[in-house]
Amino acid sequence: MSKLQCFQFPYGHDNYGVLVHDADTGQTACIDAGDAQAALAALEQQEWSLTHLLITHHHGDHTAGLTDIKSATGCLVIGPEPVSSPIAGIDRFVGDGSEFEFAGRRVRAIHTPGHTTDMINFHFPDDALVFTGDTLFSMGCGRLFEGDAAMMLKSINKLKVLPPETLVYCAHEYTATNARFALDVDPDNKALQERAREVTRLRANDEATVPSSLQQELATNPFLRTDDAGLRQSLGMVDADEVAVFAELRERRNQY
Ligand code: ZN
Ligand code: FE
């Protein structure tokens, strides 16, 4: 079994889509469908033909191109069970822990409600990849449109336990702002300072900061560090419960 190849492409203001390709079988999956033109151009550029389309959640910047991509390629569309707004064109629904096969390996759906209640993240355990949609960003997390802090913390805790070497592909390039915010609330974190410098350099060269590794996120992402003594100290919440710390971080980030 050869390693899957990932090709990340930008679209819209700050979105990323990703093509995941297996050279042995020729199968290709696309993560999210916000922009059909961008996805089809990426497929053409790589000379890959699409077999699977994996949808994380119902927001338009992740679904607007779904029907066009499906009709252009005839791909199988896999996406979340309709918890909140139903998505037209899904062939196969997945919920928490659902598994399906792609290119001879197992893909596991992880339900991570909070940003939306339907959010599904896709974990490829054999290839150490996870596609986190708008749940987990590099050094940040999604806004709570349909869920609350307790729900989102529980979702993020499902991602925290994946193997640390797992590559985290999130759906937006929000990293530079996230890094500035993270430094505000966790100023003494050396790993964060170093990552923030790397992000500044990457963005100055117009390069992507995504993917990161889970290990990197565990060390730098304040939303994964609600149990960290230094972060709690800087928030003045040494003895608060984790949900309260998470809620405070999310609220501060909303105002940031
Ligand atoms: Zn969204
Ligand atoms: Fe989004």
Count of individual helical segments: 9
The count of DSSP E runs of length 2 or more, i.e. the number of strands, is 14
Could you list the spans in which at least 5 consecutive residues all have pLDDT below 50?
A: none
Report the end-to-end length measured between terminal Cα atoms.
Answer: 45 Å
- Backbone shape: globular
Structure class = alpha/beta
- Helices and strands, in order, run as EEEHEHHEEEEEEEEHEHHEHHH
Q: Cofactors and ligands present?
A: zinc ion, fe (iii) ion
Percentage of residues in DSSP E strands: 15-25%
Sheet with the most strands: spatial strand order: 1-2-3-4-5-6
Largest sheet: 6 strands, mixed
Mean pLDDT: 97
Q: Please estimate the helix content.
A: 25-40%
* Spatial extent as radius of gyration: 18 Å
